[in-house]
Specification:
Helices cover 40% and strands 18% of the residues. The protein has a seven-stranded parallel sheet with strand order 3-2-1-4-5-6-11, sandwiched between helices. Strands 12-9-14 form a three-stranded mixed sheet. Strands 7-10 form a two-stranded parallel sheet. The chain is globular. Helix 1 packs parallel to helix 2. It has a domain of 207 residues: Rossmann fold (3-Layer(aba) Sandwich). It is an alpha/beta fold. Strand 2, helix 2 and strand 3 form a beta-alpha-beta unit. It has eleven helices and 14 strands.
Length: 337
């Protein structure tokens, strides 16, 4: 099968492409390189052992999408393209609603025209906001505390409406918790432009000397050490969840919503300690006030994904940090191709 991966040159998308190749599926990448690099493509081909075709463009471009579906035998879509920084979303709400929501609308519209009805959607645990109970399962109320989370909730609602209106649709909504780490080959990894928004890439760059210190936002949360707690999962485990979802959708119609997480939380200070073990050096830390939109503690109940897909994480926090540091030590980016 040929799977269109929107945002396929990005952090999550590139690992999905690699996982698809391992599973014997053919990937077609759609990316506008607004937050990724063209140099990822030859690396993906090394991992895949074959040519990985590329369509360069924006997921909001309906003409481009129609041409892509006309030219390629696409049987399913993994939709990873989008803007994803919680803090930035409050500063740029127009961009986030346009890219995340309108982009999803256009993609679904063209898929329907082309008769392609299998879709895996990259959602986020941010749709839960601060959950009322932990671990959080898929039945928990959705109370996103950020613009980013609200855009994801809106697309989720739309996709469920779409599946309810037409029995041909086969949709998996995957709520990511905190993907981190890199491919063990160190060929692909997280390479944000500018100052990273996520903890692990910031740790990588601080340990490498790019930043003088790591700022820890919030030390007064109601958690054991006062810092925020998140459910981190290895990006390769996450990518393999997409493959499992596609296999499930081959035999099941309707819309399915699943958490993808490790099922336990780690505080910021616990992640820092694990990373220091991985890189063999200490990281200078400073403490700052909480950021708008951040919550105290959230971690997944992944039982439904385990039961329905047979999927669970197989890599621990130490593996996440070791692979992230290996990626950083190899250059931590794509500038040199």
């Amino acid at each position: 099968m040929t799977v269109l991966v929107t945002g396929g040159a990005g952090y999550i998308g590139s690992h999905v492409v690699a996982a698809l190749a391992r599973a014997g599926m053919r990937a077609l990448v759609l990316d506008d390189f607004s937050n990724s690099s063209r140099a990822v493509m030859p690396r993906l081909e090394r991992l895949a052992g074959t040519h990985v075709p590329l369509v360069e463009g924006d997921v909001r471009d309906a003409t481009l999408l129609r041409d892509t579906f006309a030219r390629h035998p696409i049987s399913a879509v993994v939709h990873c393209a989008g803007l994803k920084a919680v803090g930035e979303s409050g500063e740029r709400p127009l961009a986030y609603w346009d890219v995340n929501v309108n982009g999803s609308f256009r993609l679904a519209e063209v898929m329907g025209e082309a008769g392609v009805a299998t879709l895996v959607f990259s959602s986020s645990a941010t749709v839960y906001g601060q959950p009322e109970r932990l671990p959080v399962d898929e039945s928990a109320p959705l109370k996103p505390a950020s613009v980013y989370g609200r855009t994801k909730r809106t697309v989720e609602d739309f996709l469920r409406d779409l599946a309810a209106s037409n029995a041909n649709w086969r949709i998996a909504i995957l709520r990511y918790f905190n993907p981190a780490g890199a491919h063990p080959s160190a060929l692909i990894g997280e390479a944000p432009r500018g100052r990273p928004n996520n903890l692990v890439p910031f740790l990588c760059r601080t340990a490498a000397g790019e930043f003088p210190e790591l700022s820890i936002f919030g030390t007064d949360y109601p958690t054991p050490d006062g810092t925020g707690i998140r459910d981190y999962l290895h990006v390769d485990d996450l990518a393999e969840g997409h493959v499992a979802a596609l296999r499930y959708l081959a035999d099941h119609a309707g819309a399915l919503t699943l958490n993808l997480g490790m099922g336990r939380g780690f505080s910021v200070l616990e992640v820092v300690a694990a990373f220091e073990r991985a890189c063999g050096r200490s990281v200078t830390k400073s403490f700052a006030p909480r950021r708008d939109g951040d919550i105290a503690c959230v971690y997944a109940d992944p039982a439904r994904a385990q039961r329905v897909l047979g999927w669970s994480t197989s890599r621990d926090l130490d593996a996440i940090c070791a692979d992230a540091w290996r990626w950083q030590a190899a250059g931590g980016g794509y500038e040199k191709g």
